[in-house]
Amino acid sequence: MQLVLNRKLHNLLLSIIMLALLASIMIFVFYPSNSKLGDKFGLAVALLFCRYIGLFIGAGLILLRLLSIVKNNSTLIYIFAGSLNISLVGLSLVLLVSNNMISPVFNAFFFNMLIGAIIFIDVMVFDSKQFRL
Q1: What is the predicted pLDDT for the residue at 79?
Q2: Apex CA 44: angle with CA 40 and CA 50, to 5°?
Q3: Which H or E run contains 66?
Q4: What CA–CA distance (Å, rounded) separates 116 from 127?
Q5: Please, which pLDDT band fits residue 1 given cuts at 50, 70 and 90?
Q6: Who's near 104: CB < 8 A, 6+ residues apart?
Q7: Rounded to whole angstroms, how far apart are CA atoms 69 and 67?
Q8: Cβ contact 37:64 at 8 Å
Q9: Alpha-carbon dihedral of residues 125, 51, 113, 100, nearest 10 degrees?
Q10: Cis (ω within 30 of 0) for the bond into 104?
Q11: Which pLDDT belongs to residue 43?
């Protein structure tokens, strides 16, 4: 149990570092934009692109986990998908509070929150061998 928990926390730390690198690269590449649509347009498009990537990867991994194709819930890609979805929801909440995002766009991030929560509940509560259909 201790080894699995250490592996999960290690992969969580690695996924947070990868998310920080991804965010740094996105800010460096896409901000400020030279578009007529505004300085933040490129960053907004990249955020929405990451939203769909997080949705598809997270939903696919949950489906593979439910079908028992992915038996181990402490893999890096599984934890990274949950971290990506939760961080996208956190970023969208910050943008909503700072009046940089409108409410209907924020509501679109609900499924990211749901997928991220399902993955993190699976990772932190259930053991790899414990989940069976």
Answers
A1: 94
A2: 145
A3: helix 41-66
A4: 17
A5: low
A6: none
A7: 6
A8: no
A9: 140
A10: no
A11: 75
